[in-house]
Every structure is written in structure tokens, then in C-alpha cells.
Amino acid sequence: MIKMDKWAKELGVKFLKEVGVKKGDIIFDCCCGEGNYTIPAAKVASKNSMVYAMDMNKNKLDILKKKSSLENLKNIKIIEKEFVKVIPLPDESIDVILLYDIFWYFSIKDVKLLKLLGEVNRISKDNSLISVYPEHTDNTDKNKLKEIIKSYNFRFENEIFNTLIHDNSLKKDYIWNFRKM
Ligand SMILES: C[S@@+](CC[C@H](N)C(=O)[O-])C[C@H]1O[C@@H](n2cnc3c(N)ncnc32)[C@H](O)[C@@H]1O
Fold it and tell me: Domain spanning 4-180: which superfamily?
């Protein structure tokens, strides 16, 4: 177990900058959980920007609320919602979308994944960054997942091997970056 403040203050910020998140970006953290990526994203994007953090789990969102108020972050908007069909954000409004560690719930066999990708396409601006942590998909499914994402008009840009956080522990793993065409 790592000290979470070291992740939020230092390592997570470094990680997201290396992924390609920039100051001023409008970010959507899809299925954000307790906000392990939301908090550093808000720091990188900085105060004149916004991070929309959506999850269906109220307890996790309450933890995120506490963390963001402890850090005095004003640029996080929490959306408590179970994704079924719609992400409640306008068309072409987002610069960066994080799809981190969600594929246990959105498996490649589940039509919900296709609906989610359709919505990600709708809300993302041209050339926006779609960053994916494909945890909980085996190697065969990973290839299929990549092809499915590409089929939603997202060009595969690069793969980054970096220290990230998963289940509140640090590990080294791969992140995929895509660009909306
Ligand atoms: C493994 S956690 C990942 C959290 C975060 N993205 C991270 O990487 O630390 C997956 C999250 O997805 C949320 N989730 C799963 N299905 C969802 C849905 N249909 N709508 C909204 N949230 C969902 C769960 O509540 C959980 O918090």
C-alpha cells in the first residue's frame, strides 16, 4: 500500500502529464471510483478547467468529494450516475477522456461497451485524447478491444509503460492512447 497523498500530489500528476494531459484540458474521468485519477487530473488541468468525474457508486464518490475538498480543488464536477445509454455531457465538449480499469464492467462481449464508445465519440472534441487502461482483459480480448475502440473513429496513437495506481497499489503497466479523428 502506498501513501495516497504521494500518488495524488506527485506520482499521479507526473503520470498524467506523461500520458499527455495538459493545463486547460476539459477532462471526463469515466467510472472514476474514488478518484485516484480524478484528483491528479484536476491538478494538471488546473483551476480554469474542469474534470467531470462520473461513477454509479455513491460511497466511492463520497470519498472523492472528501479528497477534493481536503485538497481545496474547485474544478471537479461529480456526476453520480450509472451509465446505461447516455453520458450527461454535451457534444464535442471534452479534450481528454480517461477509460481506466473499467473493462471488468464493460467487457468486449457486452453491448454496453459499444454504447459507451458511441457516447465517448459524441462528447469528445476533434483530436481529443482517449486514454485507456485495459486492465482485466486477457491478451486475446485486448487485441479485440483495441480494434473495437479504433472502429469508433479513434486512431491508436501510442502505448505507454509507466507506474500507475491499481487497487490502491502502485504497479507498472501499459496505457493506450487514442486520438479522435
Ligand atoms: C475498478 S474501478 C476503477 C476506478 C477508476 N477508474 C480507477 O482506475 O481507479 C471501476 C469503477 O467503475 C464503476 N462503474 C462500473 N460500471 C459503471 C456504470 N455502468 N456506470 C457508472 N459507473 C460504473 C464502479 O462503480 C467502479 O467505481
Answer: Vaccinia Virus protein VP39 (3.40.50.150)
